[in-house]
Amino acid sequence: MARYTDPVCRQCRRIGEKLFLKGERCYTPRCAIERRRRPPGEPANRRRRRSSDWALQQKEKQKTRFSYGILERQFRKYFDMARVRPGITGDNLMQYLERRLDNTIYRLSFADSRRQARQLVNHGHFLVNGRRMDIPSYLVEQDDVITWKRIADAVPEYIQGITEGLPKRPVPEWLSLDATNLTGHVARLPDVESSNTGIDVRLIVEFYSK
Q: Which H or E run contains 77?
């Protein structure tokens, strides 16, 4: 399976804003955006020109891809699914992205980043409705219950370290978190307003509609 293996901080620099791909490090002065504000490979004395409409649309698409850790082929698949589904294409697209299991775990503060969440899912650390799920792209449904896989009814030390001080960030309205029992519940399907992604989906729809 193809995957991005270069430093993720380069993606933030390429977009020109923080995408919070490395968890807590993004909130410190060590963040690449704080240290190097220009895109990778761009000379310091280069004059920047006004971006075209196509460039703005592509940038928003890339920003969304980088944020959710998805390659182009899979991202286009989500867009095609959103386009044929009844409703607003952009809203449908964001709902598919938000419903991914790795994103849901990140939203519940069970991981510091989507990348870490994807690794934890791949290693089989989570149960969905009591069944082991190791597919990061699994789309959660309403009323799904997400829990950590326990060993002998105990919480391993590495899980205690990750989940200490929950919630670490605001949990969106479409999810509910039981920090005591380390359980997440999908109260309803996500929408653009409750997710607060900061992404202009209109530009993405325009990019693929040409």
A: helix 72-84
Distance, in Å, from the CA atom of 99 to the CA atom of 101, rounded to the nearest integer, reads 6
Q: What is the Cα–Cα distance from 177 to 186, expressed in whole angstroms?
A: 9
- What does the pLDDT look like over 118-130, one tens digit per residue? 999 999 999 999 9
Helix, strand, coil share of the chain (percent; to 5): 45, 10, 45
Domains, the chain, ordered by start = 9-97+199-208 (1.10.1050.10), 99-192 (3.10.290.10)
| Six token digits for residue 138 | 């699994």
Q: What is the pLDDT of residues 6-52, one digit of tens each?
A: 566 666 666 666 666 656 655 565 565 555 655 555 555 566 667 78
Contacts of 85 (CB under 8 A, 6+ apart): 92
